[in-house]
Amino acid sequence: MTVYVLSHFGDVHAHAVHWACESLGKSSVFLDLYEFFENSRIGIIPENGRQRLLIDGIDVDQSASVWLRRPNPPKLFRESSVHASDLKFAEMSCASLYRGFLEGLSECSLVVSPWTAHTAASLKMNQISAAQRVGMKTPRTVFTNDIDLAISRLNTDEWIAKSHSQFKWAPVNGKHTIMPSVAPISPSDLASYSSTFPFSPIIVQEKVKSTDEIRVFVFGRTVFAASLGFSNLDGELDWRRFHSTLDIKLIELPERLRQQIFEFMDALGLTSGAFDFILNESNEHVFLEVNSCGQWIWMETDDSIPILDAFSQFLISGDPQFEYDFSQTPNVLYSDFLNSQVADEVFVQREAAPSQTTIAKKHEGQWFSSMVALENEELS
């Protein structure tokens, strides 16, 4: 059985899991999607009602486990590969083949998470509806580009504004990257953007006062829940900006919430997800969002949180119902990966190709995601 890891070469999560699977004696294939069409050749052959997939002429074993860590569409071509007049047609054709490839992977024994499920679950309105159906508490929320509707919700209580997705604006000087975050919002704030609001839909959400924020990473039937020791009572809304100062501790979730999470994942067809909850002043867990490709390796702040070992064993098991045995001694540790030759090689490659969009940095013995690295850099 083979584990396929699909991501970009600068992604530390992908390299750590690839390294861990091989350290555990299993075959692992890392597919760099950034220049997928430049470096690989894909074949899809419908046979007997199933999709036979080939990568560089080699069949993808349907007993394989597949981790769609970063399934974003690849940077399709180098400028020299396709004539400018043919570029749009080439992009359309490759996009169709790429989507078909991702769909075909769903026939493997374990896919984390299937492309169709990932696509549907990436819509935050779908997430909130699913959370409500399984009985989770959620903030009042409006998704809109209607400024009158948005303002009508701001007449009472406190509200915040969030973006629908992540994005990066790189100024001309290249020194800083601006990313959308969470911000308090008022009617006057919205009114000042009345001309552009139809073209910049936002999420208007009730601000729930929190005494703690909880990150829950779930795969199969394994749950890693961590208290971040972060409250918004002092006015700060986004814990990601203070990643390096968080007090991360593993916690036990109430059994009812665990079951609601499993019901939520089953309803959306997810096999993995990084959930964000807040603990309100009534000690209730309030669902904020889930990311089926969310980051989690930063939770392994020390060897007592064996999340890399657990997730790697999940992929190797091929079992969507996998439950990690927390009583066992971990076989692979994130700290070992950081000290490995693989990590050093990835860091050298990353430094040699700073123009790529996926950024990972090795800083003071730690790897940071692109968001955390950039925001910490700007705050320092």
Keywords:
D-amino Acid Aminotransferase, Chain A, domain 1; disordered C terminus; globular; 3 domains; four-stranded parallel sheet; five-stranded antiparallel sheet; 380 residues; Rossmann fold
Please provide a written account of the structure.
The chain has 380 residues and is α+β, with helices and mostly antiparallel strands. It folds into 3 domains: 2-113, Rossmann fold (3-Layer(aba) Sandwich); 140-206, no CATH class; 209-379, D-amino Acid Aminotransferase, Chain A, domain 1 (2-Layer Sandwich). The protein has 12 helices and 18 strands. It has helices at 12-23, 36-39, 87-105, 115-121, 124-133, 147-152, 187-191, 255-268, 307-317, 334-338, 341-352, 370-379; strands at residues 2-7, 27-32, 42-47, 50-55, 58-59, 65-68, 110-112, 141-144, 159-162, 183-185, 202-206, 210-219, 222-227, 249-251, 272-280, 285-291, 361-363, 366-368. A hairpin with a 2-residue loop joins β4 (50-55) and β5 (58-59). α1 (12-23) packs across α9 (307-317) and α5 (124-133) packs across α8 (255-268). It is globular and about 60 Å long.
